[in-house]
Amino acid sequence: MKEDLNGTRRGIAQRVQAAPSSATVRIADLAKTLRRRGEDVIDLSAGRAAEPTPPSICEAASAALHSGDTHQTMARGKPEYREACARKLSRENGIQADPEREIIATFGCKNGLTLALLATLEPGDEVILEDPGFVSYAPTIRFFGGVPVPVPLDPETGYRWREGPLEAAVTERTRAILFCSPHNPTGTVHRPQELDVIAGVARKHDLWVISDEIYERVVWDGRTHTCIATRPGMEGRSITLMGLTKTAAMGGWRIGFAYAPEEVVAAMVTLQQHLATCVGSFTQVGGALAFGQEPGPELTELWEEWEARCDFMTRELDALPGLSCRMPEGGYYGWADIRETGEGSVALAERLLADHHVAVVPGSAFGPQGEGFLRITCVKSRDDLEEALRRIREALE
Ligand code: PMP
To answer: Does the C-beta of 132 come closer than 6 Å to ligand 1?
Structure first.
């Protein structure tokens, strides 16, 4: 279709025209395109590890596929998958969930977020979120007629929630607080006291809390992850999103789940019935193995290796001229402070990709508070990390 006089494309809905493309997906796609053209690009932009999914998980899904498990499942997911998710919550998170009523299988956390927002937001409702925060939150809220209200988190206080700014963001229209811990992009893991700041405000103003816990199994240096749903008074108002994209190297499978109060899950199931029918049948079989049992060496050794690589990469980045970078508390991104270089995050990221063939994400993609930083994925192969460091050093010198 042609453009109107005011420059918008006719026939394409305003809600999409107004949305920015996902910076992380766009840069990763650009890196892939350059690679297909024969350029030697190292992609440290996308949040994906060098390793494929552990073999036992692939074999379980493959066996299911070959045994004819190729049809739709219940919209809320297979009972076996939901039971595995409930066992995981009990074993690792101290949550006793009813797999029949309080869990729904989702296509990863993004689909969980979509369903959670559609289930709870009226047009014009406000959702409080973090700045810097995950690139897809604000556009997704807007798609559903909601209004994102970013609360600036401060690098000087380690990007931790404080009551004053959070309370100040609440209005008559606030419906939910959406946050992520371990935090993408900064690597902060919220401690119980920070979770209680969110919980206190949510209880006081009767808000939902949507908690994206996609990185919860990869927290470092002996830390533990706390689910906000386990904090006092939070069980009835928390929507917990978990998935296997990051922690089991299963990003292509599109598999996760949401744990929420029964009435929220019932609403999400109705939405899923109409929007997508159900999550893939054999992917749920692989997912059940990945969540259902105590993590074995295939996963625990992977996590140990990732912690070592994050440690290596962030130390090396920290030693580069003009750049400082701490070990993330959780997740696998280096959040590199480039403010001393005097160069903007987009300018530096573009220069790194165009002239040195290293893809990273400019911090400003995560919100105004992300300016002055780059997000750098640390779980690529050791060889790639070393070569990327050499190229970044060259760019900074
Ligand atoms: N939430 C956060 C915070 C993420 O970093 C990502 C992946 N980049 C997602 C959600 C998407 O997760 P999934 O693949 O489970 O949909």
So the answer is: no
Is the minimum distance from the CB of 47 to ligand 1 under 6 angstroms?
yes
Residues contacting residue 308 through CB under 8 Å, at least 6 positions apart: none
**CATH number of 14-53+297-396: 3.90.1150.10, 3.90.650.10, 3.30.420.10, 3.40.50.300?**
3.90.1150.10
pLDDT (tens place) for every residue of the chain, 397 residues total? 555 555 567 789 888 887 877 777 778 788 888 888 888 999 999 899 999 999 999 999 999 999 999 999 999 999 999 999 999 999 999 999 999 999 999 999 999 999 999 999 999 999 999 999 999 999 999 999 999 999 999 999 999 999 999 999 999 999 999 999 999 999 999 999 999 999 999 999 999 999 999 999 999 999 999 999 999 999 999 999 999 999 999 999 999 999 999 999 999 999 999 999 999 999 999 999 999 999 999 999 999 999 999 999 999 999 999 999 999 999 999 999 999 999 999 999 989 998 999 999 999 999 999 999 999 999 999 999 999 999 999 999 9
Task: Give the 3-state secondary structure of residue 393.
Answer: helix
**Cβ 110 under 6 angstroms from ligand 1:** yes
118 vs 232: CA distance, rounded Å: 26
Q: Specify the CATH class of 69-292 in words.
A: alpha beta
Please tell me whether residue 216 adopts helix, strand or coil conformation: coil
Of 253, 296, 254, residue with least CA distance to 112: 254
Residue 386 CB coordination number (10 Å): 15
Domain boundaries, the chain: 14-53+297-396, 69-292
Q: Is the whole-model pTM more than 0.90?
A: yes
Atom of ligand 1 nearest to the CA of 46: 8
| Rg over CA atoms, the chain | 21
* Fold match flag (14-53+297-396 vs 69-292): no
Q: Residue whose CA is closest, atom 8 of ligand 1? A: 47
Mutation test of ligand 1: which of 130, 136, 332 has the most ligand atoms closer than 8 Å to its C-beta? 136
- In degrees to the nearest 10, what's the CA dihedral of 35, 39, 42, 45? -60
For ligand 1, whether the C-beta of 257 sits within 6 Å is: no
Q: Residue 125: CB within 6 Å of ligand 1?
A: no
Kindly state if the Cβ of 137 falls inside 6 Å of ligand 1: no
